[in-house]
Amino acid sequence: MFRINKGQRLAVLTASVLMTTAATGVAKADPLLFWSTAATPVEETKMMREQVLAGFGKPVQYLAQDPGPFATRIGAEAQAGKGTIGIIGGLHGELASFSSGFVDLSDVVGKSGAKVNGAYAALGKLGTSEQKYVPWMQATYIMAANKKALQYLPKGADLNNLTYAQLIEWGKTMRQATGSPKIGLPAGPKGLIHRFFQGYLYPSYTGSNVVKFRSPEAEKMWGDFKALWAETDPGSNNYGFMQEPLMAGQVWVAWEHTARLKDAFDKMPDDFVAFPVPAGPAGRGFMPVVVGISVPKTSPDAAEAKALAAYMLKPETQITTLRVTGFFPVVDVTLPADMPPSVRLSGAAVAAQSSASNAKPSLLPVGLGDLNGKFNKAFSDTFQRIVLRGEDVKAVLAQQGDVVKSILDEAKAPCWAPDPTTQNVCTVE
Amino acid sequence: MKAMSLRNPVIRRNGNFLIGTAVVTACLWVLVPLYFLAVNALSSPKAVIGFPKPAVPQFNLESVHFFATYEGVATALLNSVLVAGLTMVLAIGLGAPAGYALARFDFPGKSAFRLVVLMTRAFPLPLLALPLTVLYIRTGLDDTALGLAFVHTTLALPFSILITASLFLSIPVELEEAAWTLGCTRIGAFRHIVLPLAVPGIAASAVFAFVTSWNEVFAAAVLTVQHRTLTAFLLQSLDVSPLPLKFAGAAALVLPTLIFLFAVRKYLFSLWGIANR
């Protein structure tokens, strides 16, 4: 049995009073709040703060976010008409839905003195006459291979000019030689495999990412992908970041985002090679990823936020950002010789990929806003039904095509590259 | 029947064996993951990525050191304790009287109330987050520990009401009546008779409120900006961080709760005492 004596009662009372005072008495010391979905892994966040933002000279608080809370908070501050977020960093698609809440950053590009990539700057207008975001950094997805895998390359295959057929054959040889599949894909819950379908397989086989979703070319593509999956490590269903199975030696050949290969290249630079993605019948589809910086109209200090945006565009800052995050500059820079191995390896592969004669770049989905998740799920579901459950390709594509179509109708989104960009709502043929 | 089986040595031995196995399994169930968490947090990143994973710690402090120097961890920890503490006080302060009323009084709509109280858990938080954040920003509750504690209290309240209600039901009303006949007022009888008997159970539901708040991510991530809780501060980033840091971060998240549970264990353990009263 318990007795509460006077001392304990007093302690509880004091504690509650103290807590209430501490909880309500909010002191607002105001560093500029940088709300971002980039550089989320803790190591990158730390380096972003200590190496990139420290150079700005004024206090900046960098907070990395999941896309969900990120968007909710921005939406809420815009709706409430007042906010604490000073500056925002996010993917093109994440920023596109809040276009009306951002200030015009046209003068920032001029002020920074940097030569910003024209195509990306145009993208940052989000279809308006104002600069809604300034491009900040870019990345893409490439291939990585353990050097042990190279001996099994099919005869006559050129690593810088592979086809998907050769990749499948390569995988088959490796499986037969080692007894287990050695290709890896990030198909786990945190993986980005939907981008593989949207920006790589579909454009490579059909020259489109939405319009020809259920074309005969798409049927052929899924057939080939089934053959590729047979040579893929079954652990792929759990992989989020391919750098981990690559470093562990579980996977020898992988497709992945450059930032998610960074660790493997930096920690074991002599064990890996990086190379462009394979090509399909319609070309070498790949997806450049653009991250931009916006300043919300509710920013407590828009002038300082603009100054920070200009600082982020400076060539020196862009080089440090590359070192820290593995995301490449969007302005003209000359890279110094002492860059980390990941930059050297990925940089060469990215350059070879985008300058390939049959290159077919495609954008991340544009104008889908909240429906982005649904759109990605439509592709993951198609993958699961066709490949994991072995359902009939034609029937699944017909049904999932309707799903994709209804998402586009709901978003009223026009097509984006490589589909022909018109003003009409994009539709599935 | 019970007496007979206890006298039969074979049955008793088998019974003891079964109980022993169950106890060992239950302990391993809880301790093995904690053990591996500790080992991996204290091992070098290279060993953690490799396979097989280390089974004994190497006392490499690289990952732990990372968190010790990661800006904002200490403040976030403080905020977490603050919010969880406030949630605990609010949930018990509101929940225990409601539970007492449910146990002792008959009032119209009593069973409906029981049901409706659970309904607060039926709405997914992400759906409510936007309007709630807008409201918080307008009222100035935004980014305060108190504001977040209100949300967490709403989440914890149904359980603290229902746990304390069944707790008060299990304390015979005759004890209270006896106190009244001996000159106690209603409040006096509650303080001197019911409360001491109920403290362990109240502590249990307090712990529950504390843990509910400690583990909640979404509301914390949306409603706080500069005053983040540890979970909101770390969990989102840990999800996409390298394995060694995941272990070290998880250890940082688990350790405070373990310390807290250890501190209140006296009250928790005696919860069983009440059943044998």
TrEMBL record, chain A:
UniProt keywords, alphabetically: Cell membrane, Lipoprotein, Membrane, Palmitate, Periplasm, Signal
Signal peptide: 1-29
Compartments it resides in: Periplasm
Keyword Transcription assigned: no
Pfam families associated with the record: SBP_bac_1 (PF01547)
GO cellular component: periplasmic space
Superkingdom per UniProt: Bacteria
Protein family (similarity comment): Belongs to the bacterial solute-binding protein 1 family.
Protein name as annotated: Extracellular solute-binding protein
Native species: Microvirga alba
UniProtKB/TrEMBL annotation, chain B:
Any single GO CC term annotated in Swiss-Prot or TrEMBL for this entry: plasma membrane
Annotated ranges, domain ABC transmembrane type-1: 77-264
Record Pfam families: BPD_transp_1 (PF00528)
Protein topology in the membrane: Multi-pass membrane protein
UniProt record, GO biological process: transmembrane transport
CDD domains from the UniProt entry: TM_PBP2 (cd06261)
Main location: membrane
UniProt cross-references to Gene3D superfamilies, sorted A to Z: MetI-like
Keyword line: Cell membrane, Membrane, Transmembrane, Transmembrane helix, Transport
Spans through the membrane: 16-38, 81-103, 115-137, 149-171, 192-211, 247-268
Coiled coil regions, renumbered to chain: none
Keyword field contains Metal-binding: no
Compartment annotation: Cell membrane
InterPro entries in the cross-refs: BP-dep_ABC_trans_perm, MetI-like, MetI-like_sf
Family to which this protein belongs: Belongs to the binding-protein-dependent transport system permease family.
The protein's name: Carbohydrate ABC transporter permease
